[in-house]
Automatic annotation (TrEMBL):
Residues 9-218 form the NAD-dependent epimerase/dehydratase domain. Gene3D superfamilies: NAD(P)-binding Rossmann-like Domain. SUPFAM superfamilies: NAD(P)-binding Rossmann-fold domains (SSF51735). It comes from Rhodospirillum centenum (strain ATCC 51521 / SW). This is NADH-ubiquinone oxidoreductase subunit, putative. GO terms for molecular function: protein-containing complex binding. It holds the Pfam family Epimerase. InterPro entries: ComplexI_NDUFA9_subunit, Epimerase_deHydtase, NAD(P)-bd_dom_sf.
Amino acid sequence: MVYRYRIATVFGGSGFIGRHLIRRLARTGCVIRVPSRQPADAAFLRTLGSVGQIVPLPVTIRDDRSLAYAIRGADLVINLIGILAPSGGGSSFEAVQAELPGRIARIAKQEGVARLVQMSAIGADAASPSGYASSKAEGERRVLEAFPEATILRPSIVFGPEDGFFNRFGAMSLVSPFLPLIGGGKTRFQPVYVGDVCDAVMQALATPDSMGRTYELGGPRVYTFKELMQLVLKETGRYKRLLEIPWWLATLQGAVLEHLPGKMLTRDQVRLLRKDNVVSGTLPGLAELGVTPTAAEVIIPTYMDKFRIGGRFAAHGAADGPQPGNGGPQPRA
């Protein structure tokens, strides 16, 4: 690989994907700016590079002058910012996932940036009833309108030590007598390892042919939602019932839970779950970028062990109740 980028600006660099990507970018020797409303929140990233290499910057994302300050002089811009649910105060899907990417792309083009990478998501669809999916699609459209050479990456569910999916259900297994199967647990997913997503970014940056192209990033195996919940229970060593939640009831629960702190479930997420989250097969993916996908079963045990009975150092397979095949009641779906 040949890297020719001297200064990179990474929006969303202090998030889950960002911290893994910045470690890789730092190895190339480029200076990395990490714009943030609270620069102190990104200070932990400094240790991922040499002294002075990683620079948290204050930014007001609603102010184009502030965005231009963060971008000016960079030859590489990466936008990782995204939300799973609106949080008020102007943090709507439209503002964060449609308007902001378009503004970053427009300013990047004005400032003479050489490369732009936009992190989107599988399922991005302008016609989707989900605000998350439709805003992702609109963000892609605005990015390419302003910066046609941009590279768009669409990952499925991203897993890794700090992920918001397996960790959420692992924590739920500590306190809940069941794990939910929304819509019967039949929705299909193709989880992709955060390290593979970051490798895809790095490969795209080293490949001029990736400019102006969209890639779908999925792992080596497709799972149903039910199979993912079974994987959670296997790795936590906990016996819990898998309870089917019909769509209408999940929608009702989302209408309540979306108003509570943490937003464990929203109506928009229920709408999103009605559609499979797997690669389409019509767009290039990890293989075209030279990245071999990593199986979830290889990585998940390295961080889900903290949810086991007795904690991280308990024997793998310890359980909190009768187990299937050991004379206890069988799990019901």
